[in-house]
Amino acid sequence: MAAATASTHGTLLIVGGSGVLLRGRSRSGKSALALELISRGHRLVADDAVDLHRGADGRVHGRCPVPLHGFLAVRGLGVVNVVRMYGETAFAESAPLDLLISLDPPAGAIIRNPLEVLSQTSTILELELEELFLQGHLGHNLAVLVEAACLDRQLRAQGYRAGEDLAGRQRRLIEAQKGAD
Fold it and tell me: Both ends of the chain: CA-CA distance in Å?
């Protein structure tokens, strides 16, 4: 049986009510993205080191090692205290993990369609979690993409699938046009 606790490298935030673990290699922009999300009203749980454990609810939860509470190390800016900068509501003691977002694409990934979603499931403490791969490109606002990914995940958890909705609307329109001919 796997350990009931683990530590991982990343930045954990609460974004729109979802626990999001930003992952990526050093210098991939995790902390800068976290700072942008915090400035938009979301909450930091942990930066750089995240302690993970399985909760009584069966979910994986993350928290910050005590000495690092409220601190964020941002390349080019240095260490900042988000609680002092943004107030007590900018920090949360812990959060369940709902979504993993990697700023590094999977090895060998080739995007052929601009609407293609690079995702997979990753296992943390014997629990499978959805992992999205986001890449920053000129004109992309990663904070907006993270917010939208969280909202979309919440809608999917309620049974709504935007792609299926759109396909159904298109199918009904085509069928109505055929019936009118």
Answer: 63
Range of the domain at 42: 5-180
- Our count of domains for the chain comes to 1
Q: For residue range 79-128, list pLDDT tens digits in order.
A: 999 999 999 999 999 999 999 999 887 776 666 655 556 777 888 998 89
pTM of the predicted model, to two decimals?
A: 0.85
Question: Is 172 designated active site?
Answer: no
What CATH number should be reported for the domain holding residue 62? Answer: 3.40.50.300
Ranges of beta strands (E only) in the chain are 5-15, 18-23, 43-54, 60-63, 71-74, 78-81, 94-96, 99-102, 119-124, 127-133
User: Catalytic: 30?
Assistant: yes
User: Catalytic: which of 23, 42, 61, 112?
Assistant: 112
